[in-house]
Amino acid sequence: MIYLDRTNIIQGMKRLQAYKYELMPNGDQLRDMRRFSGSCRFVYNKALALQKESHEAGDKFIGYVAMAAKLPVWKREAGTA
User: How many domains in the chain?
Assistant: First the structure.
């Protein structure tokens, strides 16, 4: 005969829960959200290109600190203001 310990069964189950939210930004908020996503895309693409160049040249992976140090330089470049 097999006995199951009910307390172990109940403790092993996890409850998954999710929430849905709908954003309804006004015009200024929408503009700011688009500007922020564009800035993120710019930084990601610039960093990815830099990593690819480094990899093709046979250099090591560029770490977070070195990459973060380049952000102020990219911000001062013409056409990014």
Answer: 1
pLDDT in tens, 35-56: 999 999 999 999 999 999 999 9
Note whether 62 and 54 are within 8 A (CB). yes
Give dist(CA 28, CA 32) in Å, integer: 6
What are the distances in angstroms from CA 70 to CA 9, 14, 21, 59?
Answer: 53, 44, 36, 17
CA angle 74, 79, 81 (to 5 degrees): 70
Residue-wise pLDDT for 66-77, tens only, equals 999 999 999 898
Range of the domain at 54: 24-81
